[in-house]
């Protein structure tokens, strides 16, 4: 019996890692080009952190959290998202008082969902959180950052939806209106929505049940109830986006599945990934820091699903190969292998940006060269007993029809050769080092 992974949790094999790493690196570079700094957080937090921040009547807290008792009988939870932990870290470490923080983090999240394409139980997010910023300028910048990512990654079919959830007071009025409206249509609601009718009626708008679509469509919309401050915030955000030439649709039904949001919420959606179309979602959470025990600090952030980003990228782009070795070193047994060890260590020292794979596990020249070819290396260096006597090694291009040549095996000889070799940028890699 082969051992299996836990349902919804995937191994990320080397063949896909090249794409993952490249995309992560590009996203990282882009967010850092806007002045964000990395923060790394624990994967486990106290359960109450998520209960208090995400809210009790949400899908995540009701049925998706991986919650356990530790050996000390404390309830701990594998993080289902990163905002709560980032805010917690800001308070724990005194990062927020009278300060502005632009933070990013990346890593696995855990939700006990029904696994399907684009929806897993362990998945990965890239998160940005900006804390200590009140105005809509930062909301706009966060969205512009996404637009830049799509541009750099050449992803075209992503559309932006935005909405405003107002402040606490205006939402309370809207809430009442929603309860009145949905109560008048009780016969259409499903059990889930009935359960939320009084505790969290906004979440009914977020329902994925197609039978509710028509009743949701006619429901009152938050934008009609916005307080003047939230309205100004929203109008300014739209002005910034218009000026930056970023297209969006106002979706009055966009409420987001977590309780902590207020004012701006947004989602980047694609139709290319089937039902799992939300690639990047975010919004403002001005009340969360205070709710978790810090001083009132306005904040806004987004989370991007890396699996969905990778899938979208792969629709219109080649998979990015894992870096192959530049040089595969083939040796005879005995003295030649000693020389192989010595030479490859020297080369790694002098060309830190090149990758050298010294043949391990012996084998005939023929089988070693087969491995060299399979490794996709650009060159093989061949160290045979014969050549050793003359202090020479074979230098064999593997990706062109050029002939094998003999070069001096002293480090300088190989150096001279490698540092003047322009084939496939070996020279540039040398210069970078
Ligand atoms: P969905 O509506 O698809 O359930 P969500 O609103 O629950 O998404 P968020 O909590 O906003 O998602 O998380 C941000 C992003 O993380 C999503 O836009 C999506 O790209 C990704 N994501 C969320 N849940 C999963 C999952 N189970 N598997 C893979 N990616 C996910
Ligand atoms: Mg969800």
Bound molecules: adenosine-5'-triphosphate, magnesium ion
Strand content: 15-25%
Rg from alpha-carbon coordinates: 28 Å
> How would you state the average pLDDT, rounded?
92
Which regions are unreliable across 5 or more consecutive residues at pLDDT < 50?
none
- Tell me the total number of β-strands: 16
Fraction of helical residues: 25-40%
Q: Which outline best applies?
A: elongated
Q: What structural class do you assign from the helix and strand content? A: alpha+beta
- Main β-sheet: number of strands, strand sense, barrel status? 8 strands, mixed
- Spatially, the strands of the biggest sheet line up as 1-5-6-11-10-9-7-8
N-end to C-end Cα span? 47 Å
Question: How would you describe what is shown here?
Answer:
The mean pLDDT is 92. It is elongated and about 95 Å long. Strand 15 (392-397) and strand 16 (405-408) form a beta hairpin. Helix content is 38%, strand content 20%. It is built from 16 helices and 16 strands. Helix 5 (136-152) runs parallel beside helix 9 (228-243). The strands form 3 sheets. It has an 8-stranded mixed β-sheet with strand order 1-5-6-11-10-9-7-8, with helices on both faces. With 433 residues, it is an alpha+beta fold. The structure holds adenosine-5'-triphosphate (ATP) and magnesium ion. Residues 59, 257 line the site of magnesium ion.
């Amino acid at each position: 019996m082969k051992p299996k992974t836990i349902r919804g949790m995937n191994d990320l094999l080397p063949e896909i890692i090249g794409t993952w790493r490249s995309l992560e690196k590009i996203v990282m570079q882009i967010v850092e080009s806007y002045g964000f700094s990395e923060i790394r957080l624990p994967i486990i937090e106290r359960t109450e952190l998520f209960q208090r921040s995400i809210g009790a009547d949400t899908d995540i807290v009701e049925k998706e959290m991986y919650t356990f008792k530790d050996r000390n009988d404390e309830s701990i939870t594998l993080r289902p998202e990163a905002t709560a932990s980032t805010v917690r870290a800001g308070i724990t470490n005194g990062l927020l008082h009278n300060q502005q923080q632009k933070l990013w983090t990346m890593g696995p999240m855990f939700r006990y969902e029904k696994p399907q394409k684009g929806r897993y139980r362990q998945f990965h997010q890239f998160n940005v959180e900006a804390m200590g910023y009140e105005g809509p300028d930062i909301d706009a910048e966060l969205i512009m950052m996404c637009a830049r990512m799509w541009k750099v990654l050449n992803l075209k079919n992503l559309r932006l939806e935005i909405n405003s959830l107002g402040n606490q007071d205006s939402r309370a009025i809207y809430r009442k209106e929603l309860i009145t409206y949905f109560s008048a249509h009780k016969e259409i609601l499903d059990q889930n929505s009935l359960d939320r009718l009084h505790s969290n009626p906004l979440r009914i708008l977020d329902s994925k049940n197609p039978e509710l679509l028509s009743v949701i469509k006619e429901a009152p919309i938050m934008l009609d109830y916005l307080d003047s401050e939230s309205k100004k915030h929203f109008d300014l955000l739209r002005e910034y986006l218009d000026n930056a030439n970023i297209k969006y649709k106002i979706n009055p039904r966009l409420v987001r599945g977590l309780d902590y949001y207020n004012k701006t919420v947004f989602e980047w959606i694609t139709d290319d990934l089937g039902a799992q179309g939300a690639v990047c979602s975010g919004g403002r959470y001005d009340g969360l820091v205070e709710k978790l025990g810090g001083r009132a600090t306005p904040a806004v952030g987004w989370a991007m699903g890396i699996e969905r980003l990778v899938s979208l990228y792969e629709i219109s782009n080649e998979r990015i190969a894992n870096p192959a070795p530049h040089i595969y070193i083939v040796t005879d047994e005995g003295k030649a292998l000693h020389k192989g060890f010595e030479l490859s260590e020297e080369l790694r020292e002098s060309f830190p940006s090149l990758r050298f794979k010294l043949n391990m596990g012996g084998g005939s020249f023929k089988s070693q060269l087969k491995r060299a070819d399979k490794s996709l290396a650009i060159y093989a260096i061949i160290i045979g007993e014969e050549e050793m006597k003359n202090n020479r090694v074979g230098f064999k291009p593997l990706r062109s029809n050029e002939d094998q040549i003999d070069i001096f095996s002293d480090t300088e000889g190989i150096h001279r050769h490698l540092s003047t070799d322009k084939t496939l940028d070996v020279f540039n890699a040398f210069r970078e080092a």
